[in-house]
Specification:
about 210 residues; 8-stranded parallel β-sheet; 2 helices; about 35% strand; about 5% helix; mainly beta; two-stranded parallel sheet
Length: about 210
């Protein structure tokens, strides 16, 4: 995914720092900065919000919408983000261990230096997204629509891509010893030489030196 300022979160130059409770207005939070809190709610629409050092408690964030939102040093582990919508969002140095993104729509979003182990993305739509210098061990990408998505210098060991087309996906700079995938959907995937040997074995090839 080429970097394009139009695809990055569009935040005002100055944001008022306010508590989550004060910012919440009939299911809507917008144009503010929320810092060092623990928050819990249901189905919220966030627009032009900066979260810093915020912990999202194990609440029902299902179907929430995040537009032009930045998360910095936040903890969203085990949060239910299923069927949520993310548009022009950035996660920087965040914890998303076991976070549930099932059937989510994630577009123009950047995960940078995040822990995303065990997160579930099954049946989600992931378009124009980059995972950079992040750990996604045992991440679940079962039957995901991956379009223009990059994994740059990531840890992907034992991640599950079964039922997902890997055409155009570039794994070459990432690391893994094992991936679960559907060999019939492997065509067009970009891999390093060492990774090609692993995938060749999955295709049933016998490699002789």
């Amino acid at each position: 995914m080429k970097k394009n300022k139009k695809n990055e979160p569009m935040l005002p130059q100055e944001l008022e720092t306010i508590s989550f409770i004060e910012a919440l207005d009939d299911g809507y939070v917008h144009d503010c900065r929320i810092v060092s809190e623990e928050v819990e709610a249901e189905k919220i629409h966030f627009d032009r919000v900066l979260f810093e050092n915020v912990r999202f408690l194990d609440g029902e964030w299902e179907r929430s919408e995040f537009a032009d939102v930045v998360f910095v040093n936040c903890d969203l582990s085990n949060a239910d983000m299923s069927r949520a919508v993310f548009h022009r969002v950035k996660f920087e140095n965040c914890r998303l261990l076991g976070t549930d993104f099932t059937e989510a729509s994630i577009r123009f979003t950047h995960f940078q230096e995040c822990r995303i182990d065990y997160a579930v993305f099954g049946f989600s739509h992931i378009n124009d997204v980059s995972f950079e210098r992040s750990v996604l061990r045992q991440g679940d990408f079962y039957e995901v629509d991956l379009n223009n998505t990059q994994f740059l210098d990531c840890e992907l060991d034992e991640a599950n891509f079964t039922g997902t087309s890997l055409k155009g996906v570039d794994f070459s700079t990432s690391r893994f010893e094992e991936l679960q995938l559907s060999t019939e959907l492997l065509s067009g995937c970009k891999v390093s030489t060492d990774q090609a040997l692993l995938f060749a074995q999955k295709l049933g090839l016998i490699i002789k030196e």
